[in-house]
Design goal:
By secondary structure, the protein is α/β, with parallel strands linked by helices. It is built from 6 helices and 10 strands. It starts with 13 loop residues before the first strand and ends with a strand.
Length: 261
């Protein structure tokens, strides 16, 4: 049971919620998404285009992945052709295009989770609520969801998420809360961990952001094979570079920081 919750989610914000198992995180996200209604108080200002990825996704549906997503797209107001086009686009981005015509009930847990994520992204929601949405995804799909989150916030949408991995979007969120007892407490931001390096050494930083994003002024890098940008800087300057990346709008997601041999 949650009481006395006061949570503001402005447009373009990325909000992380954490807490122990059974503590009320999923309940809070369902209230934010409008799946459940509060017994007391109210939730106001929720945008009409709100999407939700549940912790457990129902897969026993008499539809193929593509037909299910096309149907959901039409529910969101898209025409049939546009809904099908967007569904195919997102399935391809998440590495599930080969399962477009597979019945939902026959999908693996990982692929059904990709479909769950795609249905939430189809119509470009203004509020995206993710409850352990990365769980069950392969590495490529997890990275793709990271980028999709960056794209939505860059477009002015708000994203509220829960994930069991403390490194998920670490240092990127605009607000961070923990469910404690029946309430919600703010969590102080934690600076990214940078490995100890010898004086005069170099550090390689891999970072990613929404497509079309440019590095902040004063930084330069080269594209990596996985869509990330690779920056090589003096170790003495690495803290400054990390702060600049994380403080950019939209923020960059720092994937790895490593000392060069």
């Amino acid at each position: 049971m949650l009481r006395g919750i006061c949570l503001e989610v402005p447009p373009g914000a990325l909000v992380r919620i954490e807490g122990g198992n059974g503590g009320g995180k999923s309940t809070l996200l369902r209230l934010v998404a409008g799946i459940d209604a509060p017994t007391e108080g109210r939730v106001g200002g929720r945008p009409p285009r709100t999407a939700y990825v549940p912790e457990r996704f129902p897969v026993a549906l008499p539809l193929t992945a593509l037909s299910y997503l096309t149907h959901l797209g039409r529910v969101h107001g898209l025409g049939r052709a546009e809904a099908a086009r967007r569904a195919a686009h997102w399935l391809d981005r998440f590495g599930a295009a080969g399962h477009a015509r597979t019945p939902m009930a026959e999908l693996s847990k990982g692929t059904s989770q990709k479909v769950a994520v795609v249905q939430a992204l189809l119509a470009g929601p203004d509020l995206l609520v993710l409850d352990e949405a990365w769980t069950g995804l392969d590495a490529r799909a997890r990275s793709e969801l990271d980028l999709a989150v960056a794209e939505r916030t860059a477009a002015g949408a708000a994203v509220v998420f829960v994930d069991h991995d403390p490194a998920r979007l670490a240092g990127v969120s605009d607000a961070h809360y923990r469910v404690e007892g029946t309430g919600l407490a703010p969590v102080a931001p934690v600076a990214p961990v940078v490995p100890a390096v010898a004086p005069g050494s170099r550090v390689r930083i891999r970072a990613a952001a929404a497509p079309g994003s440019v590095l902040p002024p004063g930084l330069s890098g080269r594209p990596g094979p996985d869509g990330a940008v690779v920056l090589t800087v003096d170790a003495a300057r690495s803290d400054e570079v990390l702060r600049t990346l994380l403080g950019a709008r939209p923020p960059w997601h720092v994937r790895t920081v490593e000392e060069l041999p």
